[in-house]
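Need fresh eyes. Consider my entry:
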Amino acid sequence: MANMKQIRRRIKSVQSTMQITKAMELVASSKVRRAKERVERSRPYFDTLYETISRIAAENHENGSVYTRAREVKNSLFLVIAGDRGLAGGYNANIFKLAAAQMKGKTASVITIGKKAQEHYAKRDVRVIEDYPGIAETMRISDTHAIVGQYLKLFQQGEVDEVFLCYTQYLSPMAQEARCIQLLPVNFGQKPAAQQSTGSRVLTEYDPSPEAVFDAIIPEYLNGVLYGAVVESYASEQSARRMAMEAASDNAGEMIETLNLSYNRARQASITQEITEIVAGSGAVGGA
């Protein structure tokens, strides 16, 4: 009987946990839909901005902008975007692992976005310049200005020599990828495909000069990159949490089935024992 009570208590406990994981799965599914819409809306803006600034950079080979000029690297700055809550599988652990690999061998400082990133680096020997917890869900592009302005000032003053952004790219509801990209100095690599074609193209005049336009648009480009990264990371977090809670609910269901089987076996054994005792007792009485 004691064993049966323990099993019943365990079944109720697992059922309560399953109700919580199911609820969290439904909430995450709802948030994933909204987050995915934000990702789809943000990508065209960033693509257009990237194409424009790449074209300016390609047409201005002698650009001596402070944003593109290479320098000796002494101090590095990392913007690390993580979640505000746990129970999201390996979402947070993957981005911290990637950031640690990128920081290895460098004098690094961080700007954290997300409560989990704040908690992670508070326990480690890394200089934290600023924390921005709880902003991902309601992030607007205007909210990025303070963050971008902060690290641009550090870069322009020479306090940091390179800036990296670590975030999680949303690929699909089932797949997310941790990434780390360099923000400063800006390097666009090859010319865009439109510039590589041998056909005719429209020449663009920049007023007052390509250099001035380039320096003016770089902060807007960085605002767009940061906004896109936060939106992608938030969608990735919700997708990872939905998958983790779905797996937890499935495991809880399997555990309940196993416990029910164990309970039925214990109940059957108890009934068999009682019958055996009754038969033995009646036999003893009859013999007397």
Summary: Residues 190-200 have pLDDT under 50 and may be disordered. The beta strands are 76-81, 108-113, 127-132, 162-172, 175-184. The helical segments are 2-59, 91-103, 115-122, 144-156, 193-196, 210-287. DSSP finds six helices and five strands in the chain.
